[in-house]
Sequence to fold (275 residues):
Amino acid sequence: MCHGVLRLLETTMLSRLPLVTLLTDFGRLDSYVAVLKAVIAGILPAASVVDLSHDVPRHDIRAGAFHLLAACPYFPLGSVHIAVVDPGVGSNRRLVAVEAGGHYLVGPDNGLLRWIVDRLGPNNWTAVQLTERRYWLDSVSDTFHGRDILAPVAAHLARGVSLDQLGSPVHDLSGVPLPLPIVDGERLRGEILHVDHFGNACTNIRPGHLSGKVGKLVVSTREHNFPGPLRSYAAVSMGEPLAIWGSTGFLELALREGSAAAILRICRGDDVFVQ
Fold:
């Protein structure tokens, strides 16, 4: 068989490998993440498992929602995303599986999935509450639904079980939509959604929100001004502030090779103005 045919077969096989992603607030010190992977492997050994992040701040649903929003669209269609930021574990909150835009998401219905579902399939998504115990582990702990319910359900989804076999239909999801910037006099007022590892502050302002503005813009918080939006961090001197269009598509506030969050004391929820 010629090399070209072998390569084509290899590419085809790789493209069909089931892909499962993991997002949790479990951290890396304990074995919780490894156990999720063990459960998936026990049901679907061929699955490729990708870690989105396990460093979501403990119980921080909004931070987890932002990570899903930033990462999930870049995965191939058919990917199954497990999200476990679940301070209500063991309570009567729902566990759901959702199909949106060709992706599957499995997690608690506590607002964690809302932003990414709105992004992937704003007017076309399907969800079920996870009630079919045959797709769970035999024994279920009240404190580890990620292991006993979410991971096995995700593995069954990845191996081809249809969404409607997993439980009863759900027609609404908990949580609020991604906040939109608003017009505040002559300014556009947004807010900081997320602060990343570098101390860059990601806002909820996208290029389309500024389409009506012409000329030089002024980007500011209540205490600091940020020149821009600029094309690169190198457009300012070391340690100087700037506004830049980040890789997530949102306007970000940064310091060149420094932490805007730590040095300028800006944080999630702060107002950001553009005029």
Observations:
- The domain at 3-170 is CATH 3.40.50.10790 (Rossmann fold).
- Residues 8-15 have pLDDT under 50 and may be disordered.
- Residues 215 and 275 are 10 Å apart (CA to CA).
